[in-house]
Amino acid sequence: MRPERSLHRLARVPAAGAALLVPASAFAHEGAGLAGGFGAGFSHPFAGADHLLAMVAVGLWGAFLGRPLVLLLPLVFPTVMGVGGVLGMAGAPAPPVEAGIALSVLLLGAAVAAAWRAPVWLACALVGVFAIFHGYAHGLELPSAADPVGYSLGFVTATGLLHLAGIGLGMLAKRPAGALALRGAGALVAIAGAVFVHGALTS
Questions:
Q1: What's the whole-number average pLDDT of the chain?
Q2: In the chain, which residues have pLDDT < 50?
Q3: Residue 56, Cβ density class (10 Å: 0-12 exposed, 13-18 middle, ≥19 buried)
Q4: Quick check: 85 and 152 in contact, CB under 8 A?
């Protein structure tokens, strides 16, 4: 990375960090019309199947695990993802991001498919680790002309909605016949994750 590009990224980090501490309603229209603003951040999680499936899987797993994780996991993921986003904007060193994202899809899907009732602390820790990879990728891909506050709020908002979609699907599957459907959905996510892992390791 060129020195001037690194300095430009570092200059945006404080603003992105501040975005994580301010309620979304306070910036509902902030940066919406800027290149790389709220709209770009909001649409980004929908642009890649790996991001989308992982975020829906967090909701599915939370719905399966029930309280308190149905509430905690959708809070942990966007919060820690924001930290990863700041690290990505700063160009901080990181492990192989694509492999980490692919692995998150595989393991989250497998957790749902296996009906794994992980302890609260372990489920939160795993989701938090996965969120770092997703957030780092978002921050690293932030367009150079982007508004970091609007972009950060956009991808955090979209992430929350995808979690809610997963929770909604999981709740629909709470009936006896639906439990099998929920685990089947997890298996499909895990299969997609295995494909992503293979692609990340062989590319």
A1: 79
A2: 1-34
A3: buried
A4: yes
